[in-house]
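Give me the fold.
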Amino acid sequence: MWVVSLVAAAFLRGLGVVYACAFLSLWVQVDALYGPAGISPVGRWLVAAQEQLGAEAPLGFPSLFWLTGASEWALHGLCALGLGAAVALIAGRLSLWAALTAWASYLSFVSVGSVFLAFQWDLLLLEAGMVGLFAASAEPRLGVWLARALLLKLMFLSGAVKLASGDSTWRDLTALTYHYWSQPLPSPTSVAAAALPVPVQKLSTFLTLAIELGAPWGMLGPRRLRLASAALLAGLQGLIAATGNYGFFNLLTLVLCACLLDDSDLARLRFLARPEPVTRDRLRVPRRVAAGLVAASSLLVACQRLTPPARFPGALRSFCDLLSTLRSVNSYGLFAVMTTERPEIVIEGSADGADWRPYQFRWKPGDLERAPRFAGPHMPRVDWQMWFAALGSCQDELWFQRFLQRVLEGSRPVTALFARNPFPGDPPRYLRTTLWQYRFAGGEERRAGACWVRSDPQSYCPIVTLRDGHLAAANDLSR
């Protein structure tokens, strides 16, 4: 008889909670994002990929949708399957099969999910999910050590890329004077954090870099140093979660931090102990070899992130490209370059080209009097992607053009993403998009009831309409 490592059991249950949050969040948006009337229909994506890559398409983009198709039933069914596997992980039942099912289900979405499932925490969940396969095996401590290595890579790279980028705001410690109001989805506490004195902001920036660059190495030391590292990293994640909306990222990082504990720290949690019989483990050597290969590959990918492309050997680059197929061995580094302004796209519709009414999103800034909100572990994909679109150009954001087309078509799943749809009956005939510069309101403006102020309006896309079922510029209108 042997007893599963308590830390590994806690990691698997925590991983199950994160998977549950991820699948539930995706489920409520899946029709709008990937359904037949959605912004990026998976069915059309599969057809296009097969036309371009032929029989190699499933190898480059592994997904169960190649087998099931991409109907609404398939989309919802895969969300339900992933959620069911997550619940099994939380309950500590059939952990290996549950971990494999959850990982394969989420990979199926990420592989074909285009820009909406390309965030770093989506890749982090897949990598943590792969580590979970080892934690659920007959040698769970392999999983614990791989989870610690993943946490070290995640946190150290997060700090290293900030300095390696050469961004002046990180080097002169002013990054956080911009961050709270320029980040993708601020939270209610972001307003207070942005109002802190500049010396406090600089100290906060210094401590952020110090924790990200220094604390991860403490996990390689003795128990007390490891626990101190866990406390620092967990505290940083708590502050990030309190001052911004990053979906399940902070929760997943906290789950990884829990792997820095020892079984003795969890001894009182008897429900984590799960005795299981084992007679002869013939896979011990292959399993350890696989864990070693995962660790080596993870280190290689981290080195690639910090090495100029010209200096990274071509053969190793090809190997890293091969690894990218499974999206489960990745490099990380959020906010390597801090944004110092906040452009926001405001979408307005009109039935006659004269009376324009704005659409309001649920989470992203729009209405000047509406304060930021907490989204919790929910990841509003379109709201987040609107932040990136505002930093680019209309012609480069193909997903945004498809989004406008769906709004003009009156797609119910897509218009349900809005907090306020000014055309609840028939869709508008025209849409216009304006790029504004937003910032938090100051004292006088705040006392007048404003949370945001905006200035410097510019055209983002031309005014558009539908012509023969396709998005087209409305040449008969001008701004």
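The beta strands are 2-3, 275-276, 343-350, 357-358, 360-361, 418-420, 430-440, 452-459, 464-467, 470-473.
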